[in-house]
Amino acid sequence: HLETIQGMAEKGDLPAVTRYIGEVEQMPALQKQVRYCADPVLNAIVVRYQEVCRKKGIAFTVDIRHASLDFLAPVDITALFGNLLENAVEAAEGAPEPFVEFSVSLREPNNLLLVTIANACRELPVEEGEGRFATRKREKHRHGIGLQSVRRTLKKYGGQIEFYHTQSPQAFHALVSFPAPNK
User: Fold this and answer.
1) CA 17/CA 2 separation, integer angstroms
2) Burial code of 85-103, b = ≥16 C-beta within 10 A, e = fewer?
């Protein structure tokens, strides 16, 4: 489907792209998906990680309140949420009681979008400074690219990220916040 959409887009046939996406969204296989939120990009990401966690035996909890993500570009939604969830799943894998908890909410009256991700971890991360962590990956050159992408996205929207960990249960937490524009 993506190749078809790309081909239509390269030809500049945007009405055809819109029609095709609408048809794909109505396919029976997609109608059976769980709907965690109204944003189709974030929903697809969450459904993917829910399935990844299920296959890996990781408990996955999602709580997405009525927070509009309309102000975020789809590519930024993917960079932010895809990378954070990928890191959480990777860290939780192999933990004694693996879990990933993901929430998104809008806090009034400040109009602040809050994203929290908590995950079990085998070992607590070793911080190298300024929110950067030592890698345990074999391919060290691929380390940190996801968080760099997250930070770029947050900078674009005036957001912040904080990390902390707890000992009991042994878990890692990421707290993301940024101002949502007033409607």
Assistant:
1) 10
2) bebbbebbbebeebbbbbe
Name beta bridge partners: 99: 59
**Rounded CA separation 175/72 (Å):** 18
Distance CA 61, CA 76 (A): 22
Question: Distance from CA of residue 136 to its chain's centroid?
Answer: 22
- In whole angstroms, give the CA distance from residue 147 to residue 25: 31
User: Mapped to the 3 state alphabet, what secondary structure does the chain carry?
Assistant: CHHHHHHHHHCCCHHHHHHHHHHHHCCHHHHCCCCCCCCHHHHHHHHHHHHHHHHHCCEEEEEECCCCCCCCCHHHHHHHHHHHHHHHHHHHCCCCCCEEEEEEEEECCCCEEEEEEEEECCCCCCEEECCEECCCCCCHHHCCHHHHHHHHHHHHCCCEEEEEEECCCCEEEEEEEEECCCC
Question: Degrees (nearest 5) of the Cα angle 171, 64, 80?
Answer: 65
CA-CA distance, 124 to 3, in Å (whole number)? 41
pLDDT (tens digit, 9 = 90+) per residue, 128-181? 666 555 555 566 555 567 888 999 999 999 999 999 888 888 899 999 998 887
Nearest 5°: phi and psi at 176? -110, 135
